[in-house]
Design brief:
Helices cover 33% and strands 22% of the residues. The chain contains two helices and five strands; from the N terminus they run βαββαββ. Strands 1, 2, 3, 4 and 5 form a five-stranded antiparallel β-sheet that branches. It starts with 7 loop residues before the first strand and ends in a 14-residue tail after the last strand.
Amino acid sequence: MSLGESSISVIVMPNTPADQDRLDRGLRQMIAEDPRLQALRDPQTGHTLISAADPRHLDVVVDRLRREFQLEAGVGKPTTAGDFELGPPDNGFS
């Protein structure tokens, strides 16, 4: 995945396997609606990295996942794209 310089990202860690399913379903729907949104899953940790255009965009995405898809998950601190090291991407969201 190639992220633009202005991208901001968070790591999302679902609490349960059911939450992982809700996260996957929600991200697939939201990515289809919004091409500025991107997501990758780190196959080594199972954590999902969600990247958006700006901090407000990211807040809206996380809020929608919690509200509309009843996601219960830990959410990391927002950071810029260059601050992450991930293994090979699992592109199961597109």
